[in-house]
Fold:
Amino acid sequence: QVVNYAPFTLLPSAVPSALFEQAYAVQQDFNLLVDAISQNKEFLEHTLASTIKVDDFTAQLFRIHMQVLEEGLAQSVFLGINRSDYMFDCGVDGTPALKQIEINTIAASFGGLTSRTVAVHGQVLKVLGKSKEASRLLPNNPSKGLALGIAKAWELYGSQSAVVMFLVEEVQRNIFDQRCVENELWNRNIRVIRKRFRDVFEKGSLDDAKRLYIDGQEVAVVYYREGYVPKNYDQQNWEARLLLERSRAVKCPDIATQLAGTKKVQQELSRPGTLERLLPGRAEAVARIRATFAGLYSLDEGEEGDKIAAAAIADPDRFVLKPQREGGGNNLYGEELRQVLQKIRDSPERTSYILMDKLKPQPAMNYLLRAHSPLQVSKCISELGIFGVYVRHGKEMVMNEAAGHLLRTKAIEHADGGVAAGVAVLDTPYLV
Ligand code: ADP
Ligand code: MG
Structure:
């Protein structure tokens, strides 16, 4: 085993306070939206119809979703933990605007580690003789907010002896981030176990009431920190996933909510009228959400897709080409985008991607500190994430919160990738 410090910026980065507040103000709306999508069978079916013909991973998730619905949902408490990510896109006149990159509805990470970065950056500023600036850094503790959501779901599940299960990777690279959330639960006298899909396959079972047991322990909440990319699954792991989804346990997220976080759904949301249909009678929420959307385009077969594909081939630097994948490092940019799109423009494979306008934030100088990397000043851009937590009991929303934020910063030469991908580092916003 090797233990390294998590990478971080030497200095906090400037963030426009109006955009920071805007991102917080829209988070409860996004929570409602994700939850509404997850309950809308027709919308998911219609939106993902073209994608699941060509993308096996999304298709397999979708099959489990349908199977669980046909059987009837055993779960009555729903817990969502998401993170909506943004960049500060610079318009032609130089004013920055808050634009969403994506919303992560499964395994949204770094809420734990980033609960410690304010203290790190506060210390650095003090050492530099800037204690006034240090005192202006905002407190931030997403791990507590996330844990409060999990605790609420555990309580509503209603069995004192049941545990919370963190579903974790085979190789646990980000365990300390997860421990921050876990410890908050132990502090509330809630037992936590850590298991892999393999353990669920070997030792998991459902009783007649579809209560989930593992090693003889009843599980109230399953918190996925795994299961969001194809390489997390073999045949046994898919069977384990199905067992979990069929159970009464609160899944964070349930499979419908995972599907609500696909890039294809994000693209469909930007069509005129879609938000209004999903959130009827909530015109203000719809307006707040829409204001954060960048241009998103379908590559489905037909005239609309042909036209945008041609535009992207002609001017690839305006766009990002995105497959239905999570975890960073999958998107295509520039010349590579052009080549791939040219190759697939007349094949159904095209529909496994979406196109998005490329955002262009204003760079700033900072030092990115990473184990075994040389110390050098870099031209950087930042991405702000807001954590959302909600709990629904039957039809009733009983918790809907913004639970803190995450600022990640990377050198501009990297088009793609987050902290886990080794590109971005943890940062703290300094509001200006
Ligand atoms: P993933 O699910 O792999 O995290 P994202 O949509 O978050 O996919 O994209 C990964 C990274 O690529 C982002 O963190 C961001 O740095 C960059 N990126 C994504 N979309 C855009 C965009 N429209 N403009 C500029 N950069 C983008
Ligand atoms: Mg991302």
In short: DSSP finds 16 helices and 18 strands in the chain. The CA atoms of residues 125 and 133 lie 7 Å apart.
